[in-house]
Amino acid sequence: MTSRMRAEIGEQPDALRRTVDALLPRTADIAALARETRQVLFIARGSSDNAAVYGRYLVESHAGRLATLAAPSIATAYRRKLDLDGVLAVAISQSGKTEEIVETLDWAAGCGARTVAVTNGAGSPLAEAAEVALITRAGDELAVPATKTYTTQLAALSVLGLGLGADVEAGDLRAVPDEVARLIDLTESSDALPEIVEELAAVPGAVVSGRGIAFGTALELALKIKEACYLHAMGLSYADLLHGPIAVVDDRTPALLVAAESGPTLPGTIALARRVQGAGARAYGVGGGAGLAGACSAALPGPGLPEWVAPLALIVPGQILVENLARRLGVDPDVPRGLNKVTQTD
């Protein structure tokens, strides 16, 4: 029987198409806020925080603005006022109902920031709290692990980047839905998929690594492995991995390496795959084109998209891998233990 998670993975092309069509006209609203701000502060938790990592790299590398990730406890626990004049605060929440995120956005506004919300919850408290609300069109998501709400958040953040003046082409974003549909078919017909599933089912965990614009994808894939498969998974930039934690990669701890098919971090990802293999461990690629596939033990296909939008599709083979791995391990991927769709934190 098809899991809800798998069904929602398959709904992503349409969800992305609806979201892009709805949000691209909002770039003017974002540009108006951009004229009054200098830097960006992202407010998020969980999968939304991994989306924020993508947003940070996009804004800094292509829009030329400093971007940082907020520590919500400064607002909610320490209740410390900061000078946020000139800051654009962007809060991300799939439901728009996480009280900590809403409270932190209100705090940011009270500290002088201009505010944007990215949420799938039209009419939610978060959408109501923001000056500009970018409402994604993912539709209802019933499986607890975020799939289509995550990729549509990335689409909204791509639109944010365009509104902030990123030096990219909006047409690249319109190519994403068809590429995601193609990638779903390619991944599910890949001989590498069952091979990687069987090998991961036999180990206690893995390291998941990427860098730059693909780093958020590595973090999200690691999170999905942990929450849906109950395996240990460490998400790291490959730069941080090389500073010491690479010692954990061995014949019982393989590396999953994610990369776009082009961009400045691809050569380093390929070099890392060769180092892992040379140390006697297994390296599995996700994306990265023929170069990464050739350096890995096995590899899943990646999107043929420019690096700046590649993460919108790059996570999709990882989602399919996780759904297959969960079922192989006898875990229901739709309702991981201990998790709810909306998480509230103190």
From TrEMBL:
PROSITE patterns linked: SIS
Matching InterPro entries: GlmS/AgaS_SIS, GlmS/FrlB_SIS, SIS_dom, SIS_dom_sf
Keywords per UniProt: Hydrolase, Repeat
Species assigned in the record: Actinomadura fibrosa
Any matching Pfam family: SIS
Domain SIS as annotated: residue spans: 30-170, 196-336
Coiled coil: none
Protein name: SIS domain-containing protein
Signal peptide coordinates: none
EC number: 3.5.-.-
PANTHER family: AMINOTRANSFERASE-RELATED (PTHR10937:SF8), GLUCOSAMINE--FRUCTOSE-6-PHOSPHATE AMINOTRANSFERASE, ISOMERIZING (PTHR10937)
Gene Ontology terms, MF aspect: hydrolase activity
